[in-house]
Amino acid sequence: MSKGAKTSNVVRYNIWGYIFLIPFIVVFAIFQLIPLISTIYNSFFEHYIEGLSEVGPNFVGMANYVELLKHGDIFKYFGNTMIMWVAGFIPQIIVSLLLAQLFSDPSLKLKGKPFFQTVIYLPNLIMASAFAMLFFTLFSDGGPINSMLLNMHVISKNIKFLGNVGTARGLVALMNFIMWFGNTTILLLAGMLGIDTSLYEAAEVDGATSTQVFFRITLPLLRPILIYVMITSLIGGLQMFDVPQILTSGEGSPVGSTMTLIMYLNKNLYSKNYGIGGALSVYLFIITGILSLIVFKFNQKGDK
To answer: How open is the CA angle 148-151-152, to the nearest 5 degrees?
Structure first.
C-alpha cells in the first residue's frame, strides 16, 4: 500500500471521530456555551421588574459589577459558602481516607466489605432536598432531637438549632458530609487498590511502620485522586444551594449566616434582576476558576 493510500485511510477514520463528537458539541453549545454567552451579555444591562412594569434592558456597562462590590454582600455570602464547605469537607476527607485504608488493607480481612461500601454510598443517592427536609424536621424547635434531649434531662429548654449561627452552619456542613463522604471513600479506595502492592511489600521488608507506609507511599500516590476530589468538592461547595435553601426557607437565617452565593443569585433571578444576576454569575465563574487553579498549582508544586 502506498503512502498516499495510508494517509487517505487515516483521514477517513478521523472523519468518523469528528462525526461521533457532533452530539456532544451540539449539547454543549445549546446547554452550556449559549447560556454562558447570554449570561455575560445580560450582565452589562440594567433589566429588572419593578411592580407591574419592566425596566430595561438598558446598557450600563460595568455598573452591575461595581454595584455588587460596593454593597459588599458578595464577600459576606462567599465567606458563608466557604465556611460551610470547609466545615463539611475536612471531616469528609479524613473519614474517607480512614475508611478507604480499612477497606483496602488485606491484612485486616474484613468481612462484608461490599455490603459496607454500598451502605456508605447510599446517602449519595438520596436527594439533597429530602435530606434537608429530614434535618429540618429533626432539629426544629419542637422536633425529635429537642424532645429526646429534654427527656434525657440533658437540656432544660428547647435549643434553637436553626436560630444560632454556629449550629445552623454546622447542620449544613453535617448534611454535606453525610451525603458525600461515601462517594469520596469509593474514589479514594479505587486509587488505593490501583497502587502496586510490591511497594508495600518492599516497605514491609525495610521495616516501615503502617503510619510511615500511609504517609510515604499511599498519600503521595493518591495525589491525583485527591486533587480531583478537592476541585470537584470545591466546585460543588461554591454551588451549594438546595440544603441551606430548604433548611432556612430561603432566608439564609440567622442574620444571613447561611446565605450562599447561589442562594443570593437565586434571589436576584426570582426578582427578575437579570443584570445583577448575570454579573454575580460571572463573578462566581471567575472565583471558581481561580480557586480551582490555586488548588491544582499547589498540588503540582508538591509533585515537583
So the answer is: 85
